[in-house]
């Protein structure tokens, strides 16, 4: 009885805890549902075209399902109508270019594979069963090996890989099935018709109902990346020259602005290549009838990534362990702020030129940029001791570093004096043999040689000396760090300033690629009276940056 009572109490406790967990889950269910609905709303709010695409897919599946639901259509097509449904699910993509790419690949792959299978069937139609089997097996081997090898070619892999896969699948299905099934040719005809119906519905929905063009996405994303880099540089410079540290919430918001600005640029390689490929499949839907240079947008994206690495380095200057004191940064605030403002101004002008499909302003590199560079150079030269770290006699400046050196030297002397005593705290060593006096008689025995004891003593002394050298080495490294502390405080700003100058150097490459894009794409010429107003309206100057001061 005594054992049953604790068991019952344990069972009751487990039941109670289980009920509490279930109750907690039931109470948390509305919160989880609310969170899921909030995420669903956010996905549609970020890009409303996703909602339109979902509705287009639903309408397309409904239309193609009529082949099964309506009796007259089902009698004319039969069970092959399911291939139309599968085609819509597989082919209908988000953009027009992606749908055209997959739809035409699927249609052409099916058509060519069916035609080749019919030709093989025609060749072996009057032959014997053995010869037919050998011929079909050889055809399957040759076609399968050849198509698989062709898929490794980069151009085919990039543009026609899906069509090659459909060709291989359809060819094997028809060719191998025709050996046992006599009606396989009829089935192949029906499947081809239903696949054509599915592809046709997909193309009509993509081209005519709220079309989404990959080329437009690539064009807008390129302009957005330029503007994002400008925002990141502006936020970096503002945060670096803040007089006081920001609160956590404000700091997190600034971090998001900086990070999101260059993250989109650095992660855009695969997206740009995919959009450029899909855009090459799209028909000419603008007033420009010439072939649009979508591949050159990929080159512009590559140059922007190279420029984005400098923004990452600039952001890294805000996170270094050794920071230049804020009063010291203030000495160089004005030229750095003006230089960053000119860089942001150029990037904003490039973004506006791509967005409006016009050439850049002839004065995109103004004299203010050169003046800001010269002012920064003069400001740095005016403080030689901060960056050279020595006076006229070639010795380190003795400010705070002298006090640090004295304190560290005292600390070293204390450690080195205490190091030998640390071995004597427990026992005293014999002055002749170096062995503890209390253990002298216990160590000397009839079977113990004096040379063995001498070797043990030397090992202990060498170990003690090694530990002392390690302590001295660590303390000496501290002396070097403390001695050059005043010099090292200026190094983070030197890195910050050098990155700004590197941005100006890489800015030329960005301008050249954008101008070449405008020439190839036949952008309209720059109109000072119209485009200047457009830039003033839509391109914001950095809030805390002084731009154009000479």
Automatic annotation (TrEMBL):
<feature type="transmembrane region" description="Helical">
    <location>
        <begin position="108"/>
        <end position="124"/>
    </location>
</feature>
<feature type="transmembrane region" description="Helical">
    <location>
        <begin position="82"/>
        <end position="101"/>
    </location>
</feature>
<feature type="compositionally biased region" description="Polar residues">
    <location>
        <begin position="391"/>
        <end position="410"/>
    </location>
</feature>
<keyword id="KW-1133">Transmembrane helix</keyword>
<feature type="transmembrane region" description="Helical">
    <location>
        <begin position="130"/>
        <end position="150"/>
    </location>
</feature>
<keyword id="KW-0407">Ion channel</keyword>
<dbReference type="InterPro" id="IPR020966">
    <property type="entry name" value="ALMT"/>
</dbReference>
<protein>
    <submittedName>
        <fullName>Aluminum-activated malate transporter 14-like</fullName>
    </submittedName>
</protein>
<keyword id="KW-0406">Ion transport</keyword>
<keyword id="KW-0472">Membrane</keyword>
<feature type="transmembrane region" description="Helical">
    <location>
        <begin position="192"/>
        <end position="213"/>
    </location>
</feature>
<feature type="transmembrane region" description="Helical">
    <location>
        <begin position="162"/>
        <end position="180"/>
    </location>
</feature>
<feature type="compositionally biased region" description="Polar residues">
    <location>
        <begin position="418"/>
        <end position="435"/>
    </location>
</feature>
<comment type="similarity">
    <text>Belongs to the aromatic acid exporter (TC 2.A.85) family.</text>
</comment>
<dbReference type="Pfam" id="PF11744">
    <property type="entry name" value="ALMT"/>
</dbReference>
<feature type="region of interest" description="Disordered">
    <location>
        <begin position="391"/>
        <end position="446"/>
    </location>
</feature>
<keyword id="KW-0813">Transport</keyword>
<keyword id="KW-0812">Transmembrane</keyword>
């Amino acid at each position: 009885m005594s054992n049953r009572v604790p068991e019952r109490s344990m069972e009751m406790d487990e039941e109670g805890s289980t009920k509490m967990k279930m109750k907690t889950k039931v109470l948390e269910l509305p919160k989880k549902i609310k969170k899921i609905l909030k995420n669903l709303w956010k996905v549609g709010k970020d890009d409303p075209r996703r909602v339109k695409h979902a509705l287009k897919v639903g309408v397309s599946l409904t239309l193609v399902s009529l082949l099964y639901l309506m009796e007259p259509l089902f009698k004319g097509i039969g069970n092959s109508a399911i291939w139309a449904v599968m085609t819509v699910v597989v082919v209908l993509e988000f953009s027009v270019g992606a749908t055209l790419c997959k739809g035409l690949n699927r249609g052409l792959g099916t058509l060519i594979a069916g035609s080749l299978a019919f030709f093989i069937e025609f060749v072996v139609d009057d032959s014997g069963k053995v010869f037919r089997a050998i011929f079909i097996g050889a055809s399957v081997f040759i076609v399968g090996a050849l198509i698989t090898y062709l898929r490794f070619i980069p151009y085919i892999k990039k543009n026609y890989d899906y069509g090659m896969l459909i060709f291989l699948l359809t060819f094997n299905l028809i060719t191998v099935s025709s050996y046992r099934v006599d009606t396989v040719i009829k089935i192949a005809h029906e499947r081809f018709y239903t696949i054509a119906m599915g592809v046709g519905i997909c193309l009509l929905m993509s081209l005519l109902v709220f079309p989404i063009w990959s080329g437009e996405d690539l064009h807008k994303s390129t302009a957005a990346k330029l503007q994002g880099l400008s925002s990141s540089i502006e936020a970096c410079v503002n945060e670096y020259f803040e007089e006081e540290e920001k609160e956590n919430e404000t700091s997190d918001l600034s971090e998001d602005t900086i990070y999101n600005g260059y993250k989109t640029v650095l992660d855009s390689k695969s997206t740009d290549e995919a959009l450029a490929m899909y855009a090459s499949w799209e028909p000419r839907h603008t007033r420009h009838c010439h072939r649009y240079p979508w591949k050159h947008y990929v080159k512009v994206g590559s140059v922007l990534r190279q420029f984005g690495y400098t923004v990452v380095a600039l952001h890294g200057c805000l996170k270094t362990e050794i920071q230049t004191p804020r009063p010291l940064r203030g000495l160089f605030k004005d030229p750095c702020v003006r230089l960053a403002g000119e860089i942001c101004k150029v990037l904003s002008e490039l973004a506006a030129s791509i967005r409006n499909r016009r050439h850049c302003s002839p004065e995109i590199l103004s004299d203010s940029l050169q003046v800001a560079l010269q002012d920064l150079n003069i400001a740095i030269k005016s403080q030689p001791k901060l960056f050279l770290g020595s006076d006229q006699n070639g010795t380190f400046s003795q400010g705070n570093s002298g006090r640090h050196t004295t304190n560290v030297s005292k600390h070293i002397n204390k450690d080195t004096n205490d190091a030998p005593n640390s071995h004597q705290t427990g026992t005293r060593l014999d002055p002749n043999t170096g062995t503890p006096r209390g253990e002298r008689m216990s160590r000397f025995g009839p079977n113990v040689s004096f040379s063995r004891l001498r070797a043990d003593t030397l090992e202990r002394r060498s170990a003690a000396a090694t530990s002392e050298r390690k302590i001295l080495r660590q303390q000496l490294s501290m002396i070097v760090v403390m001695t050059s502390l005043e010099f090292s405080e200026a190094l983070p700003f030197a890195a910050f300033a050098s990155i700004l100058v590197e941005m100006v150097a890489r800015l030329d490459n960005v301008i050249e690629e954008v101008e070449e894009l405008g020439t190839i794409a036949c952008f309209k010429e720059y109109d000072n009276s119209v485009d200047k107003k457009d830039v003033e309206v839509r391109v914001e100057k950095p809030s805390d940056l002084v731009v154009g001061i000479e």
